[in-house]
């Protein structure tokens, strides 16, 4: 059984040089630093155009200490497959290949190559940092932008459609491991990446990543905003392995205590939701309540089966 990581046993070795080009309070900077600790030094990164490209910088002054292949928007998973083939030819079996892309480059532009790799079962880890928009190019809406959020191309009413559920899409491929994480809970993130390393086949990890300039909040509140998303039930922390779903961390505590914060608390922490009316908030709250009611019922049924 894997021992849970705490601040005392988190590896000390750093794989990011001090100082990056990330925005102040960037949730990705937290997830990237902790994520690389979990991936370890024998890792090759595959990164498309994204905020992460900005954070890392470009050779010879990149902030990452790991080898990184910069590729086109649509080809992250395809490039990872190619790197796996090259390593196999060289007889190198102990190197982790990790694609790390944004939600736009995953849910929209890169979904085709990711789906293809998942269908083949290619042995790499795909990490999507989900800041819910194309933040690197001016805060445009993506498939994972939530309903009601103001963006550069939905500036009046906000996005009308609901957020695309990419973890569910990837789970439908039947891959070996799917997990959701949040930059606000870095130790949960660390443990899930470390677990993914022990498994074969395609592994998908979705990281909810607060973005101060894109979401509209003071940079010092990145972790607080990220936690509100989870505590309100807006974003859930779980893992799926062998077709079995298990809630983790703060989401597991919600399941046990059956207590959610009002989602309005989360919405009011960001200016991107300022156009949401009370009727819209109530509708989204009802969606969350219905979702969690299903979780509660499933838990009850499982406990009855065990008895």
Question: Which tags fit this structure?
Answer:
Rossmann fold, 8-stranded mixed sheet, 13% strand
Can you give a write-up of this model?
The protein is of the alpha/beta class and 307 residues long. It has one domain (27-306): Thiamin diphosphate (ThDP)-binding fold, Pyr/PP domains (Rossmann fold, 3-Layer(aba) Sandwich). 41% of the residues lie in helices and 13% in strands. It has 12 helices and 8 strands. It has helices at 27-39, 51-56, 76-90, 103-108, 111-120, 166-171, 186-197, 212-215, 222-231, 249-257, 263-267, 278-306, and strands at 43-47, 68-70, 96-102, 125-130, 177-182, 203-208, 238-241, 244-247. The chain has an 8-stranded mixed beta sheet, sandwiched between helices. Strand 5, helix 7 (186-197) and strand 6 (203-208) form a beta-alpha-beta unit. The longest helix is centred in the C-terminal third of the chain and has 29 residues, at 278-306. The protein starts with 26 loop residues before the first helix and ends with a helix.
The order of strands across the largest sheet is: 2-1-3-4-6-5-7-8
Largest sheet: 8 strands, mixed
Rg measurement, Å: 19 Å
Strand composition percent: 5-15%
Task: Give the % helix.
Answer: 40-55%
What is the tally of beta strands?
8
Give the CATH topology: Rossmann fold
The chain-level structural class is alpha/beta
What's the pLDDT, averaged over the residues? Answer: 95
Q: Tell me, what's the shape?
A: globular
